[in-house]
Amino acid sequence: MKARHKRLGIVIVGLAGLALATALVLEALKGNLSYFFSPTEVVEGKAPVDHVFRLGGLVEAGSVRREEGELTVNFVVTDMAQRVEVAYEGILPDLFAEGQGVIAQGKMGPDTVFVAEEVLAKHDETYMPPEVAEALEAAGKMDQPHPGGKAL
After folding, report:
1. pTM of the predicted model, to two decimals?
2. Are strands 114-121 and 83-89 parallel, antiparallel or unpaired?
3. CA distance to 20, 93, 119, 137, per residue, from 90 (Å)
4. What is the dihedral of CA 83, 66, 121, 52, to 10 degrees?
5. Residue 63 above 90 pLDDT?
6. Integer Cα distance of 123 and 58 in angstroms
7. Cβ atoms of 39 and 78 closer than 8 Å
8. C-alpha to C-alpha distances, 92 to 15, 17, 75, nearest whole angstrom
């Protein structure tokens, strides 16, 4: 075999290895992606059924329910157009409150209840997560000034 053919073989094997490594990295990253959906998008069926995603909106006033002696909390997330019931087992963040912005990460359950693995609440009284503000604005329900320049 000539030296030219050996080099060509090494280059081809190297490119094949690089393509395989790229494919494996992309597949691993695809499993870790978590997209944001508003309650309207979830109700319309745009959210994945068997994949983790983020649900964001406002915690509906009067919707927070906790059974005595249980860690499971049920509440409703709304974008003022649609609403999605959420079940979360664990301790909620200190800043979690009705009428405030929230993002929950989890999956849709078989009974159309969003089963959250993690709940993120606002970090001060004026902040709203950008995804939640955009979802509320898209629903046409924003009416208060927002520190980031958008209305709430």
Report:
1. 0.66
2. parallel
3. 40, 10, 9, 30
4. -60
5. yes
6. 14
7. yes
8. 49, 46, 11
